[in-house]
Design a protein that fits this description.
464 residues; alpha/beta; Rossmann fold; five-stranded parallel beta sheet; 44% helix; globular; FMN_Rdtase-like_dom; Flavoprotein-like_sf
């Protein structure tokens, strides 16, 4: 059968993810495999309609399609995201080429938000009315371990069997429904003072006739003094991230001096008190231009840029129907050690309601920055920090030396549980005593009281 591999890695033949396909091909050589290096050739695909049509011709003739990609910043690389946009921009004729095709998604990563990436990809496949068989989210080095290879081969065999036997598949994502609504803001007499705080607003669409353009203007007019607004069109961002990892040594991107993005990030965002992003939903995310912007921020590697800052977003589109995007936003904020003060959309209420929400959002940002309020991080932030801490301490240390220096200087490695001498001593003693049934009986009678005792002491204390 004909299997088409759409390669989402900008590294082309040097893609680690591609090696998984080549190993599958080695073990199942009877199928006809074809590879398109989509991410690597995205500029040519955009500029050459004949090339895009050639890819679509292979899509139409394929019996199975594999979307393969590395994870970049909680999603696909921006180059692959742009290809997906081209599919939807092409209309029904283009989208119908994918309809009914059996498909799977393959990724390689260190499992940092691989679930949001695969949720996105499955939703795209559902939107294209494809037959989604499943995902395979591999640790980058899995295939090098003899014990892990059978799992990948079993997944491939399941995919081939689904095609051959025309097995039914399940859809997991409903189509997004956008309301026909034109936001008309009104002037507010109330003005909020920045009081010397620096607020930076980054936008990808300043079209004053669009809802997001009007939301941006309304947010800007909420303040008594001007705020710094930067559009993607005016930021000197020429190149997408290609995953070269040169930045791992000293946070210096290979594009330093070739465009102005890294300088912009350092000079305008890292010293801001408040950062707000604004954009329209495009398919199941924001625009590929936004993805390009965030991918390039990887020159900071796994070191947060915005610790202690306030963050928020203005979004035009049905965000409530797209919880995966909300998960991505929350994950980005907490990984960067920011406080997510809010996300304002145009999906509910009338113009007066949205006016009030935007004004309240602006007030919330200023209140939180004055109070230095950073909400306790949830799983999004705690888990991501531990994943990076463990990998940078171990297998990524020589590649991500800038991360290692930052983590070592700022005490990240002190959070290893095995390094806590107090708990090591307590555990040795308690594990020995718990061997005795009489001790365990008394322990479980008192454990609830003992756990809460220091908290009650704090609450009862008059001045603490």
């Amino acid at each position: 059968m004909k299997i088409l591999y759409l390669n989402g890695s900008p590294k082309g033949d040097n893609s680690v993810t591609l090696q998984y396909l080549l190993y599958l091909k080695k073990k199942f050589p009877d199928h006809d495999y074809k590879v398109w290096h989509i991410a690597q050739k995205i500029k040519s695909i955009e500029k050459q309609p004949d090339l895009f049509q050639e890819i679509l011709k292979d899509v139409k003739s394929a019996e199975g399609i594999i979307w393969g990609f590395p994870l970049y910043c909680l999603l696909l690389p921006s180059q692959f995201k742009r290809f997906i946009e081209l599919i939807f921009e092409g209309g029904k004729d283009v989208q119908d080429k994918f309809k009914g095709k059996y498909t799977v998604a393959l990724s390689t990563s260190i499992h940092f938000y691989d679930h949001t990436c695969h949720n996105y990809m499955q939703a795209i496949c559902d939107d294209l009315d494809m037959k989604y068989v499943g995902k395979f989210s591999a640790d980058t080095w899995d295939i090098l371990n003899r014990k892990n290879r059978p799992t990948w081969l079993a997944f491939g065999k399941k995919f081939f069997s689904a095609i051959q036997d025309t097995k039914p598949t399940i859809k997991s994502f409903m189509p997004l429904l956008s309301r026909d609504f034109s936001y008309i803001p009104t002037n507010s007499s109330k003005k909020i003072q920045l009081n010397g705080k620096k607020l930076v607003l980054i936008v990808d669409n300043q079209d004053s006739t669009s809802n997001i353009g009007k939301m941006i203007e309304q947010f800007q007019s909420s303040f008594g003094t001007s705020i710094s607004i930067y559009s993607h069109e005016n930021i000197d961002l020429k190149f997408p991230c290609i995953g070269c990892m040169k930045c791992g040594y000293d946070n210096r991107c290979s594009y330093d001096g070739k465009d102005g993005f890294n300088e912009f990030w350092r000079n305008h965002l890292m010293d801001a008190d408040i950062i707000v992003f604004a954009g329209e939903m495009k398919d199941r995310y924001l625009s590929s231009q936004w993805k390009k912007f965030l991918d390039r921020a990887y020159f900071r590697n796994h070191t947060p840029s915005f610790t202690g800052k306030q963050f928020g977003m203005l979004i035009s589109g049905p965000l409530s129907q797209n919880p995966n995007l909300k998960e991505i936003i929350q994950g980005f904020a907490e990984f960067q050690q920011m406080n997510l003060s809010g996300i304002i959309t145009d999906e509910f209420g009338d113009s007066t309601d949205i006016d009030a929400l935007i004004l309240n959002f602006a007030e919330e940002l200023i209140y939180n920055v004055k109070q230095k309020f950073i909400a306790p991080h949830s799983f999004h932030g705690v888990a991501s920090q531990k994943i990076f801490r463990d990998d940078v301490y171990g297998r990524l240390r020589f590649v991500c030396q800038a991360d290692h220096r930052h983590y070592k200087t700022n005490g990240y490695y002190q959070s290893f549980p095995q390094n806590n001498k107090v708990f090591k001593k307590i555990n040795r003693k308690m594990m020995f005593l718990s061997r005795f049934k009489k001790f365990r009986t008394q322990l479980y009678k008192r454990i609830a009281d003992e756990l809460v005792r220091p908290f009650k002491k704090l609450v009862a204390a008059p001045y603490r």
